[in-house]
Structures
1.
Amino acid sequence: MAENINEMRGTLHVTDWLAGIKYTPEDETEIVQVLFKNTRAAFYTNPDRIPLKKGDWVAVEASPGHDIGKVMLTGPLVHLQMKKSGTRRDAEMKRIFRKASEQDIEKFKAARAREHETMIRSRQIAAELGLNMKIGDVEYQGDGAKAIFYYIADERVDFRKLIRILADTFKIRIEMKQIGARQEAGRIGGIGPCGRPLCCSSWMSKFVSVGTGAARIQDLSMNPQKLAGQCGKLKCCLNFETDAYAEASKQMPPRDAVLQTQDADFFQFKVDILARTVTYSTDKHLAVNLVTISASRALEIIELNKQGLKVEQLEAEKVKEEPPKEYVELVGQDSLTRFDRSGKSKKKRKAPKPEPKPQRSAESKEPRQPRQQEPRQQKAPGQEPRQPKGNPQQKRQKPRRPNGQANQGNGGNTAPATAPGNGNNQARRPKRKPNPPKNENPKE
């Protein structure tokens, strides 16, 4: 896992935006940046114009012997990185021998396997000598002839005797290199207060000094416990947003500006740089009658105060907002199925309930005609009734008389004469409806 992190750290430091574009061999592989363990990187020349690409393992010149590293960057972007690091193009550089072979890779892995054992033994030797130092890591050279010991110390340490003992013990060339607390935290790793892996152990390869001025620009609390990271120093992430806060703070009103109104004077109490709002108080040291306004409104009031004018209130008058316009879907109106939807909606409508009709009286001039049937002529007294088509006994039935009543006016020999509106002389039909009154012609 540590090897993967170290390899990823160098690749994320520089992004080759021009990858995939073909250049001339002189521009592409003239100078190459090579990455080693613990974010150690250097620039090497390629005199033999060996075709290289990002990620290739190469054998480079070392003192003494050779070292194994991975190509980090090629092409024109190398010159920009040299300018950024302060390396001149005409400076003396070591060269690349060849692409690493299988034997070189095997020897390199065998040297890497000895690093942890060497670090533990060297710590014991330093403790026996009583040196106030801590050896944090050991890096072997690719050919195994040299090793770099990284140590941490708060004061100057005389380690000349330690070097002689280490050289006699491991039979290699010794180089001591002092590192800081940030580099040590990057090698150990961990989880930051943001819940993500430490930046120094995941992608950062160069460390920039962090000062308390970055915290003041961002208006952060000057609490050392909150500003310090796991290394005990100020967090590196304080520098990430400092430029954005510095640019935004230029558009904010000055802290010592006093806003004058007709009622009282307001002093600046709190500032939200990213939201561009300012909170003012009527007391210079306490939160009294707090009013929050925008930065543009505060600058406007300051200009009016310079002209000798005092505003009625800090907050600007609210402008009546127009109601939002309703959205009209014009595309849906031209749909092919718009008529189908309209037909369905009509079918779903419920028909209104019919109002109850009043009963017809005997004085009505025109009798009600049955639906889809011709009106029936009534028999005059002394005439035989008209025989309907078919068998009348099957279609008509004898009208019923109410109990206890006898026929009136005809002695019971003819059809009974009933009062208008009485349905006793109606034939049985699907829907019972009253017959027209007697001795009246419905055609009139």
Note: DSSP finds 15 helices and twelve strands in the chain.
2.
Amino acid sequence: MLTYAIRRLVLSVPTLLFISFVIFMLLQLAPGDPMAQVPLTVPPEVKQKMREALGVGEPALVQYWKWLVQVFWIEPKVFIDWLTRDSWLLGWLPDTHLYNGELRVISWQTRSPVMDIVLQRIPQTLWVVGLSYVVGVLIALPIGIYSAYRQYSVFDQAGTFITMVGFSIPPFFTGPLLIVIFSVYLGWFPSIYDTTHVVRDWASFKVQLMQMIMPVMVLALQTTAQLSRYMRASMLDNLNQDYVRTARAKGLSEAVVVMVHVLRNSMIPVITVIALGVPAIFGGAIITENVFKVNGIGQLLITALFANDLPMVMTLTFIFAVLIVVFNLIADILYGLLDPRIRYD
């Protein structure tokens, strides 16, 4: 398993390089000049330094090489310096001072390092998107298991109807609908997510919880609808297998048969959906973050697209590509842990 994981990690490097090259060349076709909106009061030497950082006016391959150096060499040094300086994880170590003022990936819109902006937005996205995915998985798995065990029951029929509705209705409809019902008419929850809110005590935590409920509900609804259907189908396929009848004939309790033998085998295909759903939920949160004004990665990508901020768009799309490759590897490794018959030799 370790050899397989190392081999996959090595193979992921050329894969990510190819993906980044394709994305970069496609974005080069987009029109726009990053220096067009620079005020006339900016000194020429400052404009020249900005132009060098952005790689404007150079061949596409030179710009791509600069981007690779900035992302894979300069940005890690900045991140390590931050960890040893401000992070609670490695803050006890002496400062490294690896970064010596080299040119970083600069946003055309804000004229500031792209990764600094991304790191500022990630906590907001994790609060909403991460929690919604965890909630969706925790709700979907029990629903799928019980629906399969009680096939065609009232619970199964109701669950099938609700999940089909949740899977069919897009977030740009459910988001405003929840705002109209729970914010406008009932006044229970705020319609706009306050990204400046800081949790200091129990009262501020309640405020944070109240403003998270609606965006988490919208995202968790789709996750629950999708995963519960996969879980139900996988459980139904395994409940009719010979090993289940053999386990029951041996006198094992129904709980052990369903929750140990059937569930373990049923989770193998569902693991793929869960793992690959992580990058997908980040991409799907673009609409939800804009509906509820969550100042996260999704809203940042939309803003960068409208502003023609190519370095920001390039970096964010590459981050999504990295998530897809990493969670594909995680899914394959979990296969071997759940099913001893699977070996990666």
Note: The chain has a mean pLDDT of 77.
3.
Amino acid sequence: MDSFEWNKIIGAVLGTAIFIFVVRVVAENIYEPEKPAKPGYVVEGVVETPAGGGGAAAPVAEALPDWGTVLAKADIAAGKATAAKCEACHDLSAAKTIKIGPPLFGVVDRARASIAGFAYSGELKGHPANWTYDELYKFLKSPGAYLPGTKMSFAGISKSDDRINLIAFLRSNTDAPAPIPAPKPAEAPAAAAPAAGAAPAADGAPVKGPNGPAAPPPAPKAN
């Protein structure tokens, strides 16, 4: 086979490749699917990231629970069911076996990055603290947003009640449960504002009327 025949074969192959490429580009432009304004369903626990990437979205600030009140009413059985999501990566038993993640037996009020033999992320080791109720509550909402760089790839638990129930179960899942703090005192009602144009008077002080301070009372006459 001479070079002319080879040139024809190579030309045919290149022409076919170019034709397929052109057809694909045209088809994508004609049949580009229309994206819905809202998703058909929402996957529980998945946190959307902003357009253009840039990591997990920053967590929305929310009021922390009154642990002295909510733990007494928490559904530990529901929390145990939620904890099933954790067992893929964490051991919940007293054996404290290291899996993909560190064991969670006795995690409530345990020092961070304290399980010997587990390779914690530098970000977690760089934030020494205890896993208090508040810290677990904020972390479990979105681990990647609350502590960027953490190895924990779990998207998080968005519902407050689910996190409270889970933390209540984790508190019970130990030989010595962490103490429950006292309920926060109720806020005192705001004092009523004084009537317009009037002010409370101290003993012996003139009373302020609508037209200014009232004249002092006359001095008693000597007998």
Note: Confidence is low (pLDDT under 50) at residues 39-56.
